[in-house]
């Protein structure tokens, strides 16, 4: 079954923030994003509800946009206590391993704790948190065409097995064996 339309790209992804100005400044300074626009209303356009907000938009490059809402009338933002903090994250791609290592040095130089680089078979990545508590990942692709072909081949098998057993399928164990590990 297919949809009667085609998606062209993600228009933007929106998250909540504690302070719109601080968030914009952090993403500009830490990740080099460009602040492009803001929307602000007292009433939510889609629902009509009174809920003043500031909605800011940052250009991430490649036509990708990250947005944030500051909601001063809502209870203080938190996170889902039943979801581990490593699960929900925003991942951005960098050109190569040199760029990833340069990003790590830059971010650590700003006093931000960075985890990684971590090996994921077809990419390596680093992790850190923004001032709102959102986990951010920077990743560089290292996979070869045959890796992606194999992952596509086993994806339906893995999903079917997971659906039946709720245990990690082993079809792509090679993703977790870092050839550079000592």
TrEMBL record:
Cofactor: Fe(2+)
Signal peptide positions (record): none
Domain of life: Bacteria
Family matches, as Pfam families: Glyoxalase
One Gene Ontology term of the molecular function aspect: dioxygenase activity
Keywords: Aromatic hydrocarbons catabolism, Dioxygenase, Iron, Metal-binding, Oxidoreductase
Domain VOC: from-to ranges: 9-141
Similarity comment text for this entry: Belongs to the extradiol ring-cleavage dioxygenase family.
PANTHER family with a match to the protein in the record: BLL2330 PROTEIN, GLYOXALASE FAMILY PROTEIN
Name of the protein in question: VOC family protein
Lineage start: Bacteria, Pseudomonadati, Pseudomonadota, Alphaproteobacteria, Sphingomonadales
């Amino acid at each position: 079954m297919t949809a009667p339309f085609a998606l062209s790209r993600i228009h933007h992804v929106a998250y909540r923030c504690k302070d719109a100005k601080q968030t914009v400044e952090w993403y500009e300074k830490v990740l080099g994003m460009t602040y492009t626009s803001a929307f602000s209303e007292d009433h939510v356009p889609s629902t009509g509800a009174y809920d003043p907000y500031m909605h800011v938009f940052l250009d991430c490059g490649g036509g990708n946009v990250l947005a944030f809402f500051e909601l001063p009338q809502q209870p203080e933002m938190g996170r889902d206590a039943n979801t581990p903090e490593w699960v929900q994250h925003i991942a951005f791609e960098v050109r190569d391993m040199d760029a990833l290592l340069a990003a790590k040095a830059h971010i650590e130089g700003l006093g931000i704790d960075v985890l990684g680089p971590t090996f994921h078979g077809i990419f390596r990545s680093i992790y850190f948190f923004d001032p709102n508590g959102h986990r951010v990942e920077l990743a560089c692709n290292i996979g070869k065409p045959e890796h992606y072909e194999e992952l596509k081949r086993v994806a339906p098998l893995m999903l079917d097995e997971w659906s039946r057993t709720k245990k990690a399928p082993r079809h792509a164990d090679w993703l977790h064996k870092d050839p550079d590990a000592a």
